[in-house]
Amino acid sequence: MRNLIRTSLGTVALCVAVSAMAQQPVVYPAKGQSTKQQGKDDGECHAWAKQNTGIDPAALAQAPVQQQTGPAVGGGERVGGALMGAAGGALIGGIAGDAGKGAAVGAVVGTMAGGSRARQKQQAENQQAQAQRQEQMNTFYRAYGACMEGRGYTIK
Q1: How far apart are CA 52 and CA 24, in angstroms?
Q2: Distance CA 75, CA 94 (A)
Q3: Using CA atoms, how far apart are residues 23 and 18, in angstroms rounded to an integer?
Q4: Where would a tag sit more exposed on the chain, N or C end, judged by fewer CB atoms within 10 A?
Q5: All residues at 6 or more sequence positions from 101 whose CB lies less than 8 Å from its CB, including other chains
């Protein structure tokens, strides 16, 4: 239970940090550029950053993140947990006098533990996909900011 709480808190902290890093930069016309000029420069720098990074932030924002949902299956965690639990339960049950009952209880407990591992794996994969998307946005915004700075704007 403690590990789950720690993992959840770490996940939230990571998501907040990654989210903050990927925010669009604020542009200030440091050399008195007009609104019209700033709009022109913004469009040109947006196109330049898109071309040089291969990242289209509009398409990236509209594309759904591939969240894995539903039952966590496919990795064999539940089956492996059941087998390990059954073996351990049979061993303990054999000592106590009923190996079959011990194996059954061990299989149930092992299946539950395997399901928990599968959910943790699924959650980690979802977090990795989100972090990758945020990193792509960071790359685009770094290129965009470099272009705008080159045109005399202050970027924060």
Answers
A1: 17
A2: 30
A3: 9
A4: N
A5: 93
Chain mean position to CA 141: 19
Task: Please tell me the total number of residues recorded for the chain in this structure.
Answer: 156
- Strands (DSSP E) contained in 4-80 are 27-28
Find out whether 27 and 45 touch, Cβ atoms under 8 Å.
Answer: no
pTM above 0.85, yes or no: no
At 50, list the tokens. Answer: 């898109």
Are 60 and 136 a contacting pair, CB within 8 Å? Answer: yes
Burial label, 9 (beta-carbon count in 10 A; 0-12, 13-18, 19+): exposed
Please name every residue paired with 28 in a beta bridge, in sequence order, or none if there are none: 154
Classify residue 99 by its DSSP letter: H
Alpha-carbon dihedral 143, 148, 154, 156, rounded to 10 degrees = -30
Which tokens go with 119? 């959910």
The predicted-structure confidence for 43-60, as pLDDT tens digits, reads as follows 999 999 999 999 999 888
Name the token pair of 150: 């080159």
